[in-house]
Design a protein that fits this description.
The chain is mainly alpha-helical. The protein folds into two domains: 222 residues, no CATH class; 114 residues, Serine Threonine Protein Phosphatase 5, Tetratricopeptide repeat (Alpha Horseshoe). Helix content is 53%, strand content 5%. A hairpin with a 6-residue loop joins strand 2 and strand 3. Helix 5 runs antiparallel to helix 6 and helix 9 packs across helix 10.
Length: 338
């Protein structure tokens, strides 16, 4: 198991993951700073504070480089700039996470510009890191196709690093997002390695399925609905654990019960949990086969996923269609008309 994954899953060592680079033992030499991050940008971050110096001054439209100095070399550097940059490789402690510079697309569409660094001050609960990670995660979702593959993977890599920071501060939502990244291998194997992993002579990576299982289990233990039904999917398929239809069914029901009826109900979670319960009753997986119950759960899934889709969660469109078709299919099964 990689040190970064093991550390964020253990609350007792959470604080150790976010030590600022200034606390690094003097015996450890810091690697060279990222070339993409200039001294003017660093000075601006010190002057204006976290999380983003440039957003405080007008976002990506603002540049601390005077217009008279924006020559062809400056434009070429901006166009070829990376999605993120690692400022320091972390501290001397095992699994220490680095400072990361984040960017956003330039308003003229030509390249990117750095707008923030993290960590920059205390972030109790990891909300700032989670917010920055969600920006990258959303950008990656909007980059389909092979032509955007490199930038999409870089966005997921930046999101993973920020989510590891947030998880170290105790954010359950960050554990859920990390599980999603590892479950789908969204970074295509290019994941962050802690200091101990980089210095190890014989390195053994933790498989993505086991990483996803670890993070979803942590979230499910703390009552996170989405983590419950996603963990159920892993258990049903035997990914990262032994397969168990009965346990998966229990996790789906717990996910629905956790979210249903809450003031801040996550309709996507209730809809996805209901959809999986409907499949279980239709096929008799982890429970007795019952088409009437399956139809009821398909209806609940259609309602929940429809509300989530209307609210902008378009990536559950396929599940919404499946739920609607399931209602019609169960009606045929009950009536015996085909």
């Amino acid at each position: 198991m990689t040190s970064a994954v093991a550390a964020v899953a253990a609350p007792s060592v959470a604080c150790a993951l976010v030590l600022p680079a200034e606390d690094v033992a003097s015996s450890v030499a810091a690697p060279a700073r990222a070339r993409e991050v200039g001294w003017a940008q660093r000075a601006a971050n010190v002057l204006f504070g976290a999380p983003s110096a440039r957003r405080a001054c007008g976002g990506a439209e603002t540049s601390f480089t005077p217009k008279v100095l924006r020559n062809e070399k400056w434009r070429r550097r901006r166009e070829t700039g990376s999605v993120f940059a690692v400022d320091r490789k972390g501290g001397a402690g095992e699994g220490s996470l680095p400072r990361i510079w984040v960017s956003e697309p330039a308003p003229d569409g030509r390249g990117r510009t750095f707008v923030a660094s993290y960590p920059c001050g205390a972030d109790r609960g990891g909300w700032r890191a989670l917010e920055l990670a969600e920006v990258y995660f959303s950008e990656a979702l909007g980059l389909p196709g092979e032509e955007h593959r490199r930038r999409r993977v870089d966005c997921y890599r930046a999101a993973e690093m920020l989510l590891l920071h947030a998880a170290a501060w105790g954010s359950i939502g960050a554990h859920c997002r990390l599980g999603v990244i590892y479950e789908g291998d969204l970074c295509e194997g290019a994941y962050w390695d802690g200091l101990a992993d980089r210095q190890a002579l014989h390195k053994a990576d933790t498989p993505c399925d086991e990483r996803a299982y670890l993070h979803f289990s942590f979230g499910a233990y703390h009552g996170h609905g989405e983590c419950c039904w996603r963990l159920g999917d892993l258990v049903a398929a035997g990914r990262g654990c032994a397969p168990s239809a009965a346990r998966a069914f229990s996790l789906y029901r717990r996910a629905f019960d956790l979210e249903s009826g809450r003031i801040d109900e996550d309709r996507a979670s209730t809809g996805n949990a209901a959809l999986r319960l409907a499949r279980a009753f239709e096929l008799g997986r982890g429970c007795e086969q019952d088409f009437r119950r399956a139809r009821t759960w398909y209806r609940l899934a259609a309602i929940g996923l429809g509300a989530a889709s209307d609210a902008g969660q378009w990536h559950f469109k396929r599940e919404r269609i499946e739920a609607r078709r399931g209602v019609a299919r169960m009606a045929q099964e009950i009536a015996g008309t085909y």
